[in-house]
Amino acid sequence: MEVNHQIHSVCGMCSVRCPITVEERNNTIAMIYGNKQSPLKGALCARGVAGKALEEDAERPHGPLIRAGERGEGKWREVSWDEVFDYVARKVAAAQEKYGKETVLWSDREGPFTDLYRAFMRGLGSPNVCTHSPSCDLNTHHACKAVFGYGRGMMVYDYANCKHIVLQTRNIFEALNVGEARTVMRALRGGCKLSVIDIRHTVTASKADNVFVIRPGSDYAFNLAIINTLIAQGLYDKNYVAAHTTGFEELRAFVAPYTAAWAANECGVEAQAIENLAHMLAEAAPHVIWHPGWMTSRYSDSFQVSRTALVITALLGGFATPGGILPGRTPKDCGKPDLKKFTDLYTAPQSPRADGLGRDNKAFDTGKGMLHRAFRAINNPEGTPPVKIYFAWRHDPLQGFPDPDAMRKLFSGLDLLVSVTFSWSDTAWFADVVLPLSTYLARDSIIAGKKGLKPQFFVRRQAVRPKFNSKADWQIIGGLAQRLGLDALHFARVEDVWSYQLRGTGLKIADFDAKGFVSLTKEPLYADLETLKLPTA
């Protein structure tokens, strides 16, 4: 009788990375569903369930490839992993000897599994690590840091205890975060109000108590009018603002001209409707969440849209308050040691970055980078060392950024473009080398941490053997590292990777068998704003 084996793992079909359980039979995927021991309780979105199709896709790269024709021509030479590792390592070493350590550029989709990649770049001596954030969440991230001192990844939205949620450029019920959508629906059934600000009618708007269909690009004006109303009519939380904020009088003076009547002309909504929303939020305070948005990279004032959303939440006392926006907790907050980091193996490079961050743009987060600015250094004859080696790790900038033809022209100045991918993309097709990454169902990954009210460690585990000649991320990094003299990043087995990370934590990999994750606290940890030291100075 055939038996299904259950493997607890992590979905890889989008950036939410839901905890999943995979049923495997004879090295094939029988079923995928949400991990029943997680808040998903077995639920999973359609994309997550379709992960089996990704693994069975026969049109993805079958093995390592080196370009045999012109860039983008689609002519390839199939090679072994040993040959491709040697080839890439020779190119990297030659470029670094000629141009300097900083000639290597890296970009990826970010996420919880990047510590090994960052360590690789540190070992190479290059500071040029970037993410896809400039085309996605960078404005929201910087807004969170500007207002609260924490980046977007540390924000926890306590929908379960919220009394009024405002979604602006955030369409939760047509997005892919099943856990978030379910929590919001429970909150609405419990009496929480929902207001939606968007340029179109959406499924989320259909479930809202208030809908504001505004003119495209007028979100900032709308938000300024809300702030004006809250302050002018004394609706903000005066005690909270006095105790926990700075710059209030400057804010009051700045928003004075931006009344609801002014915003009505800008946004195409009635002034009274704007004022009514401010009053409803004040009634629900402090249990209010004005979401700072998602994909806020469309307009020149998108940063200010996200920033003012967070300012409104703060004016209502909704930061670090149950039912509001909370700072995520860390293993340290739980009294537990964190995972041992691979980046600790090497000193962070102090040389100038190709994108100018830390020098030209000191307020921007170097952890995210400005990839489009780094691309300008590819053909840079002066100044900082030119970028001649580019690793696009599970990232497709030719589709994610505007004007791909101009980018291809830039890329022509590279000595080597390496695409690490589990499927074909525009960037992979234009690359010099394609390194096929095993799908998330066919690879083990490093242990990762998740911040939140209940921090945890979790692990992605291989459910089936790779269908083609692909490798896991730790194997690809290890193969390249070994040839470039970074032996500390070369591991013979994934168990050795996990053992390194768990040193000092008191945990063993067997502790992840039952659920796929290990919670670091039994009860949610709410920050105490009286003792919380915000990194905003």
Task: From the structure above, extract its key features.
537 residues; alpha/beta; 7-stranded mixed beta sheet; 4-stranded parallel beta sheet; 19 helices; 19 strands
Q: What can be said about this structure in brief?
A:
This protein is α/β, with parallel strands linked by helices.
Percentage of residues in strands = 15-25%
> Average pLDDT value?
93
- Catalogue the unreliable spans: none
Inertia-based shape: globular
Biggest sheet architecture: 7 strands, mixed
Radius of gyration: 24 Å
Helix count equals: 19
Strand order of the largest sheet: 5-4-16-15-14-6-7
What is the end-to-end distance? 64 Å
Summing up helix and strand content along with how strands pair, one would put the structural category as: alpha/beta
Question: What would you note in describing this structure?
Answer:
The protein is an alpha/beta fold and 537 residues long. It is built from 19 helices and 19 strands. Strands 5-4-16-15-14-6-7 form a seven-stranded mixed sheet. It has a four-stranded parallel sheet with strand order 11-10-9-12. Strands 1-2-3 form a three-stranded antiparallel sheet, with no helix packed on it. α3 (81-99) crosses α18.
